[in-house]
Amino acid sequence: MEPKHPHDRREGWELFRQLNRYMNEQFAPQDEVLASIRRSMEENGLPSISVSPATGKLLTMLVAISGAKNVLEIGALGGYSGVCLARGLGPDGMLTSLELVADYARLAKQNLEKAGFGGQVVYMVGPALESLEELVAQGSRFDFFFIDADKENYVHYLDYCLRLANPGAIIAADNTMAGSGIGTPRALGRRGEIMRQFNETVARHPALDALFLPIGDGVTVARVKAAKEER
Any keyword Transferase (predicted)? Predict the structure, then answer.
């Protein structure tokens, strides 16, 4: 099969962007709570890299559909995805959110409190791998995971998610398309290659059922199999 011409790839990428705009506008219009979080991030100098509105809607739906009671978020930023995750929880559900930067965690906590979820979220500040090791030592267990942090450690985060997962838990990871890099990893250099390898790991993992969804910048979703399903 001949590789696509760069012009063809650009056309395909533009079509993908149009489809995502349609999804955002028709299925996930941004409400005032989420819009205010984006404004707070801009005012506080945080990077504008929150999940897309459609991705946020997907997270809410996945948490709600799965009936998750304990959710772990790796990468809080300003709290946009945290609110989306918390919206899927019932009143007795809890969100544990890991964030490297203390100022980001403080802003995220403020935004979750304003959204009415202050009593349902706990923040752990510091390197995520250290926080994950602490959670393992505590014997913590989770029903839902959302990975949206430094891409170089995605595979390591996946390993920890599996160690912390209840059977049937859902693992979702953002930015797994890496722009237009999937299928042509050299187009985006190292990041594209990292995401390609991560997706291959998830797709082939014997403990996971997985699928890639072309929403936002790509979301890879997997379900942790029960032990009997792995045989």
Answer: yes
> Could you write out the DSSP letters of every residue in the chain?
-PPPPHHHHHHHHHHHHHHHHHHHHHH----HHHHHHHHHHHHTT--S-PPPHHHHHHHHHHHHHHT-SEEEEE--TTSHHHHHHHHHS-TT-EEEEEES-HHHHHHHHHHHHHTT-GGGEEEEES-HHHHHHHHHHHT--EEEEEE-S-GGGHHHHHHHHHHHEEEEEEEEEE-TTTTTTTT-GGGGHHHHHHHHHHHHHHHH-TTEEEEEE-STT-EEEEEEPPHHHH-
Q: Which amino acid is it at 215?
A: I
**Token output for 62:** 């996945």
**Cα–Cα distance between 85 and 69 in angstroms, integer?**
11
- In this prediction the pTM is 0.89
Single-letter amino acid code for the residue at 56: G
Alpha-carbon distances, residue 173 vs 35, 90, 170, 218, 228 (angstroms): 22, 22, 10, 8, 25
Q: Which domains does the chain have, with CATH numbers?
A: 6-230 (3.40.50.150)
User: pLDDT of 1-55, one tens digit each?
Assistant: 444 555 555 666 677 678 778 877 777 778 899 999 999 999 999 888 889 999 9
Rounded to an integer, what distance in angstroms lies between the CA atom of residue 25 and that of residue 136?
40
By CB neighbour count within 10 A (0-12 exposed, 13-18 middle, 19+ buried), where does 47 fall?
exposed
